[in-house]
Amino acid sequence: MGAVREQWEVVGGVESGGILVRDGQSIKSLAIADRLSTGAIIEQLDLQGDRLQYRLIEGKGPAEGWISIKISSKVLAVPKPVTASPDEDQQQSAPETQPTVAESAEPVGNDVEMDAELRQRIETDAQVAMKNNLFPLHVMKYKIHGFPLSEPQFRVLCFHNAGSTESNYTGAGTPFISWIKETKAVELIAFDYPGRNKLLKEPKHTCAQTLALLLAVVALEKLTDGVPYVVWAHSMGTWVAFEFLMLCRKAGLPLPKAAFLMAFPAPQLPVESRPWRQNKSLTDVDMRQEVLDWDRDHFTGAGKIVFNSPGWEEQWEPLMRADFQVFDEYDFQHAGAAKFDFPIHSWHFSEEHYNKPEMIQLWGEWTNSSFDFRTMQGMGHLTCFYKPDLKKRYFQEVTDLLRGYAEL
Questions:
Q1: Which of 220, 233, 273, 383 is the most exposed, fewest CB within 10 Å of its CB?
Q2: CATH number of the domain to which 328 belongs
Q3: Is residue 110 included in any domain, yes or no?
Q4: Number of domains in the chain
């Protein structure tokens, strides 16, 4: 008889509903929609470096395909000893270069149990959203940029700040957009929240949790098709993105390769330490001042148009008050929750009025992986988007990191 084929156990994908499977050895080959479940037992057909061709023995997922047994320092599959048949002289041993069981141990607390009822709710609501064609309303530049791609290899999901729109990310001429066009393999999903653009007449959301649920429903098809992604959020958008990620983890949906959570404190910042005021009790004069204080350079320059009548009364004040309520009445409900396994990038902008470096650094408490904190010199809370020279520098630094995660 021939030698016993090596068997492996899948140990990765606890938080994402399994690990990604492709139909070929290359990491650029087509991703299969279904993931290989955590705990699955597979038979090795071929092993090329960290890429393993397998046949499924036990568990859920594609019957055959290619997986990565390790990504960076994270182990996704480990050898499983198999007893040889009686006429074998000795048990086949794993190659010395393969990861050991000890190396594959997940950090304590990361085994988050999936909420099947929540997953079902999201899937049911997503069917309604598709029937009502909500995706292009929330991601209005998707087709304009030439998406969907026939074989996307990577995506960037963007969550904008209060009082803004998806255009902060989708505007032409930035290093970010240029990179996307050059690769011809990256899709951009820049969300609009209700109350602006094609959703102008929709009720505005004032709660990060409900807004996160809506966006997860709208984007479900893109989250579950096997294409890896990262999240990029700014200011208030970081708390929406955080709730989005917590929701995805709880529902067993795939999580990103990394999160860029910029220009805002981590959500566990105590209420008494929040430097801004709740806007519901502010007079019109005080509300104008509150908006101005977030970035005086911007709102006394290009952004001062928002205070003009009747635009302020009819459009900007209602929008700002609703968006500000998302964070100034935010109720943090995740004390003691497990950290994420992906890297987090959280940057401070040196000309901020409210946000201090130590508030941004609190995001480091949310990852078991690497944490990247830096200060973007000469930039304000919003001038980093609205002053071309600052935006170019900001977007270049983010794009340089995205290139590494995309691996294109």
A1: 273
A2: 3.40.50.1820
A3: no
A4: 2
Residue 223 lies in a domain: yes
Amino acid at 141: K
- For the entire predicted model, the pTM comes to 0.74
Query: What pLDDT score was predicted for residue 96?
Result: 36
**Are both 142 and 85 inside the same structural domain?**
no
Residues of the chain with pLDDT under 70: 1-4, 14-16, 72-73, 81-111
In terms of domains, do 59 and 189 share one? Answer: no
Contact assessment for residue 236 and residue 161, using Cβ atoms and an 8 Å cutoff: yes
The domain of 381 spans: 116-406
